[in-house]
Design a protein that fits this description.
With about 130 residues, the protein is mainly alpha-helical. It is built from 6 helices and no strands. The protein has one domain. Helix content is about 55%, strand content about 0%. It is globular. The model has no long low-confidence stretch (mean pLDDT about 90).
Length: about 130
C-alpha cells in the first residue's frame, strides 16, 4: 500500500452534511487552481524532460524541491514514528505535500500542507476500516 500516493477511506456522508447550505468551491475554481499548479510544476521541471509533475520526482528532486519548514519536519517525524511509515511512504508524503503547496500557490511547503498530505495516508493506519 505504500506505493499508492493517496489513500482515502470513503465513509457514508451524513444527512447533516448533505443538507448543509455552506457553499462549496466551484469546479471552475478548482480547475483554475489545478491549471496554476501544473504551470508551476512545468516551470519547476523545465530543464528535466523526463519529469512533468511532482509524482515523478526522484529522491534527489525531493531533497531539492520538497523542503519543509521545521514545524512540518516535526509533524512528519511524529507521523513516521506513530504510523510506522516506510521510507517509500515518507517520499510520497513529501511529493504530495509539494503538490498541495502548489495548489495553494505556496512557494514553500508549510506545516498545513504536510498535515493534509499525512491525512491522505489513511490505509497506513492500524485502525483503518474500523
Amino acid at each position: 500500500m505504500d506505493r499508492i500516493d493517496l489513500q482515502i477511506e470513503i465513509v457514508p456522508v451524513s444527512y447533516d452534511k448533505l443538507h448543509d447550505k455552506k457553499e462549496a468551491e466551484s469546479s471552475e475554481d478548482i480547475r483554475k487552481r489545478v491549471m496554476s499548479a501544473r504551470k508551476l510544476q512545468q516551470e519547476r521541471f523545465k530543464d528535466r524532460p523526463d519529469i512533468f509533475c511532482n509524482a515523478q520526482m526522484t529522491t534527489r528532486d525531493i531533497r531539492k524541491f520538497a523542503q519543509i519548514d521545521p514545524p512540518g519536519q516535526s509533524l512528519l517525524k511524529t507521523a513516521m514514528q506513530k504510523l510506522n511509515l516506510s521510507a517509500r511512504a515518507f517520499d510520497r508524503i513529501l511529493k504530495v505535500s509539494r503538490t498541495i503547496a502548489d495548489l495553494d500557490c505556496s512557494e514553500n511547503i508549510q506545516v498545513q500542507h504536510v498535515a493534509e498530505s499525512i491525512q491522505y495516508r489513511t490505509l497506513d493506519r492500524d485502525n483503518w476500516g474500523q
